[in-house]
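Q: A reviewer asked whether we had any structural model of the full assembly, not just the individual parts. We don't, so I'm hoping you can provide one. Inputs are below.
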Amino acid sequence: MKKTAFDSDEILTDFLTDYLDGNLNRAERKSFEEYLANNKDERIFAQKVLKGKRALTRLANLRKESTITSVEV
Amino acid sequence: MQAVSRTELQEMSDEDLMEQFQSGYEQAFNLLVKRYQDRLHNFLYRYTHNHQDCEDLVQETFFRVFRSRHSYERIAKFSTWMYTIAINLAKSLYKKKKRMTKVTIHEDPNDSEDRPMKLEDTDILPDDSLHEKMCIDELENALMQLSEDFREVVVLRDIQQLSYEEIAEIADLPMGTVKSRINRGRAQLQELLENYVYPETISS
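A: Here is a predicted structure for the entire assembly that you could use as a starting point for your response.
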């Protein structure tokens, strides 16, 4: 995986974490999105993190569905 | 070949019907189509979100079942075998349809003035479509390929839904390291999933 500013900047990591958790206010979010828009590697990384998070959420849901189905069967 | 009545056929399991079909009873195949066409359509709709595509895929799936009937072995459940055919067809269709798209990083649904930011995305697949094509085994396999350091924290956060504080305590790591590993783990998982669906895009 390509190195990005997120590897060396803890504040930036906090920003991304809060962004994905929906904990930024509107102004903070806009400024973070502007940062991403101007930094390609960081933008690609952030997109992968977002998509990976969604995949894991889907997996969690599938595991739940699978448990429910097993119980029903 | 012993004659089988329609009533007897209707009472048979899917696997028995496949055996009858393999022995030459096309009526058994028609019954399997009747049993599964709606279920298969609903199943495929979750992958394609398009009814016309679903109809085509259902038809193609049954065509493949018909054509490959002699390759079916009773060691597998008929439904598992058939759904595997359907998923592979859905993936092939998706590959055909893939194209450059724009993704939205974030949008506040409660804020009418908050327009989504469109970031051109030429090298990443549309995530929702990608993930919806994945079955639980594919996602589990990708998760298992993560290094243990990453896997531990993403499971605690995204599967078990623990707080960062709890994860830091369990993993005995500073909070910054926990957050960084969670993000890197998620990104790595996404890369694995992209490579799984489109192995030709794996970079050396």
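A: Points you may want to mention in the reply: Chain B touches chain A at residues 103, 105-106, 108, 111, 114, 117, 119, 121, 123-124, 127-128, 130-132, 134-136, 139-140, 142-143, 154, 158-159, 161, 164, 176, 179-180, 182-191, 193 (CB under 8 Å). Confidence is low (pLDDT under 50) at residues 99-104, 116-127, 199-204 of chain B.
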